Amino acid sequence: MPVLVVTLMRSGREARALAGFVFLIACVTDFLDGWLARRRASTTALGQVLDPLADKLIVAAVLIMLAAQPLEPRVPAWMVVVIVVRELAVTGLRGLASSGGVLVPAQELGKYKTIFQMFAIEALLLHYRYPIPGTQLAIDFHAGGMLFLWMALVLAVWSGVDYHVRILRHVRLH
Q: Which domain holds residue 137?
């Protein structure tokens, strides 16, 4: 996370490409770490708390840095606020539930939200239009990233409401 934040304090295509590369490496290693832990049946309660927390911290840090960028077009700050508040609310709610003996595993909606968020952040980090060699076409990474961010935002709100409803139901039943 510190490498991404420092990299995003610089401007230009090279800095954004480096940030995109670092974020991609973080995503791949996070996936492999979880996959190996599940495959080897070596998951721990601490790991189940710390891994999502680390994911949320890196997402929040990068989105905040992207909203603060002087480069136009920017990521709208209100979208970052909604996503970060959702992450904090769900993390807090899961923590309260677990202290009461209720484990709330990640749901399908939250997993899809995470996937769209990762694609969005990767594209938003790359930001620029990149030509497709041999054609007159170019890929606008900012536009693509914003499309994925909108999808992630909808899923974030939906899954956040779902978490709250499920936990409140469980609390009322016990």
A: 2-173
